[in-house]
Design brief:
This protein has ten helices and three strands, in the order H-E-H-H-E-E-H-H-H-H-H-H-H. By secondary structure, the protein is mostly helical. It has two domains: 57 residues, Orthogonal Bundle (Arc Repressor Mutant, subunit A); 145 residues, Four Helix Bundle (Hemerythrin (Met), subunit A). The chain has a three-stranded antiparallel sheet with strand order 1-3-2. Strand 2 and strand 3 form a beta hairpin. Helix 4 crosses helix 8, helix 5 packs antiparallel against helix 6 and helix 6 packs parallel to helix 9. The mean pLDDT is 94.
């Protein structure tokens, strides 16, 4: 399941691409049962479509699904930011500062996939500052549709640098103890997924549902 999930999110398996059960079994060297279970779970998460006659394929990106993903993520992460401001400490400050430095290096090296991973780590660190990993798992599952748009947007001009700038503003607001500013910075960052959509719809229209 995890292999297929990550392959879909990273766009290694592209929207609209057919999936053949036999080929997956052969490539992963596993029996049909776990593959079938994984496909059913991915279908339930709307990441693949299973049709009796047409076969199975990676779902195209649905804009409404992206909106719902973003709504869930923003609602939960803004609550986490509020808690982080109220319980800010040196340990969290150092962890986020280190992640920001690593992200800046990724921009210099043009290492977009590593930047994507560090982007998630920045958010995960805030979420797990005082809450269990269960909350991050909820967010991670909810943001799956949103993540495909994020990956598509990474090559857009200046998007990588903008991610680091947005994280820096979140970090600065957290450090200053300004709760409103921190929440606004987080909301702005999470909503940038929609500013990229118009360009992506034009450039990769075949990846989106009509």
């Amino acid at each position: 399941y995890q292999i297929l999930f990550k392959s879909i999110i990273s766009l290694w398996l592209k929207p609209g691409q057919p999936l053949r059960e036999k080929e997956i079994c052969k490539q992963l060297q596993i029996s049909r049962t776990p593959v079938r279970e994984a496909l059913l779970k991915l279908a339930d998460e709307r990441l693949i479509v299973i049709l009796d006659r047409s076969g199975t394929y990676v779902s195209r990106i649905n804009i409404q699904d992206v909106r719902e993903s973003q709504f869930i993520r923003e609602s939960l992460e803004n609550a986490m930011v509020r808690d982080a401001v109220r319980n800010w400490n040196t340990d969290l400050s150092e962890k986020l500062s280190l992640l920001l430095e690593q992200q800046k290096q990724c921009v210099k090296d043009d290492n977009r996939l590593r930047l994507y991973e560090l982007d998630d780590m920045f958010h995960k660190t805030i979420v797990e500052f005082r809450f269990s990993s269960r909350i991050w798992k909820i967010i991670n599952n909810a943001k799956a549709q949103m993540d495909r748009v994020r990956i598509l947007a990474l090559p857009l001009p200046r998007r990588a640098a903008e991610i680091v700038e947005e994280h820096s503003k979140i970090f600065e607001a957290l450090c200053s103890g300004n709760e409103t500013q921190a929440i606004d910075a987080m909301s702005f960052h999470l909503n940038t997924v929609f500013t990229s959509l118009e360009q992506l719809l034009e450039k990769h229209h075949e990846y989106f549902e009509e």
